[in-house]
Design brief:
Structural class: mainly alpha
Strand content: under 5%
Number of domains: 1
Number of strands: 2
Number of helices: 12
Radius of gyration: 22 Å
Order of helices and strands: HHHHHHHHHEHHEH
Distance between the termini: 50 Å
Helix content: over 70%
């Protein structure tokens, strides 16, 4: 009967510690995103104050003109099951095209799992009836499936994109996510927490997906896997301006309470401020996910990278990244 030597046990323990060291930071990030998702749900959905504020903003969509709501619905029209299926296929094919088949399959799986989870949670999560209102207002809308689809596209693209192009994916993905988060509220489809929760949920699934890659030792250092601070600064500045504008509107409402005295006046202020908050805050989940990948290349083993040189170069320094 074979026996396990002390040396073999020590090697096994070292292997476990190495796996934990590789995957731990990504698993912790995923847990952090998930904890934030739960916190948003508890504060915005399970409390009377949260429901009251968000319902005020949602009801304000009815005060908007038909043209405004129609434009927002048109902006969301490309987000469909067919579009999402094509995006999953495209992301998977991109992984195979880069000869990182495991990465392509995992990125596609992350996208599908995130969107399916969002749709299932929207059906099963309870929404206590703290505030009276019509049936459509009492139904649970947390998290937003529409925003989850857009966020999943961004996360999937970040996972499979060449390191040198990650910054461009972040910029386009953040803009698309901001438009989707804002439009779902202007159209009267979703609340602020629905949009933020979707971004956090997708980022959590993405982070856990990266931890799976790390367990398989498919996360390596990359000199090209960094995004310049100017890109992050530009996104944060735009978000800061939007947050400031939305906050200013609510401050005016507090300082000059007579502004809310006309019929629906309070709803107008909240309905104007909350879409701005959504456009500012939801893309931050994509920014944080991109930061998680900072200085890393996915789908290749570090040993292979040491032999071949940094991603994007061979041993002579010539570009090879695809």
């Amino acid at each position: 009967m074979p026996t396990v030597t002390a040396g073999a046990r020590a090697d096994s323990a070292m292997d476990r510690r190495a796996v934990i060291a590789r995957a731990g930071p990504y698993a912790l990030a995923g847990a952090g995103f998930l904890a934030a998702f739960i916190a948003v749900y508890v504060v915005a959905v399970l409390t009377e104050a949260g429901q009251r504020v968000e319902n005020t903003a949602l009801l304000g969509a009815a005060i908007r003109s038909e043209a405004e709501r129609g434009q927002s619905a048109d902006a969301l029209s490309p987000v469909s099951l067919a579009t999402f299926a094509f995006a999953v296929l495209l992301v998977t094919v991109a992984g195979f095209a880069r000869r990182r088949e495991g990465l392509g399959l995992l990125a596609g799986a992350v996208m599908v799992i995130a969107v399916v989870a969002a749709e299932l949670l929207k059906d099963v999560l309870p929404r206590p009836a703290h505030i009276d209102g019509p049936i459509w207002l009492l139904r649970n809308s947390f998290p937003s499936g529409t925003v989850a689809v857009v966020a999943a596209m961004g996360v999937g693209a970040l996972l499979v994109s060449p390191d040198r192009l990650r910054w461009a994916v972040l910029v386009v993905g953040s803009a698309a996510l901001a438009i989707a988060a804002q439009s779902t509220q202007i159209a009267g489809w979703h609340r602020l927490s629905d949009a933020i929760g979707s971004g956090l949920l997708v980022a959590a699934v993405g982070a856990f997906g990266v931890s799976v890659l790390a367990v398989a030792d498919l996360v390596a250092d990359s000199a090209l896997g960094r995004i310049t601070w100017r890109v992050y600064a530009a996104i944060l500045i735009v978000g800061g301006v939007l947050l400031a504008l939305g906050t200013l509107l609510l401050v005016l409402l507090v300082v000059f309470p007579l502004l809310s005295s006309p019929e629906g006046g309070r709803r107008v202020f909240f309905q104007t401020a909350f879409p701005l908050f959504a456009a500012a805050l939801t893309p931050l989940t994509l920014v944080l996910f991109a930061r998680l990948l900072e200085g890393r290349t996915l789908g290749r083993r570090p040993t292979a990278q040491r032999e071949e040189g940094p991603e994007g170069t061979d041993e002579t320094g010539s570009s090879t990244d695809v």
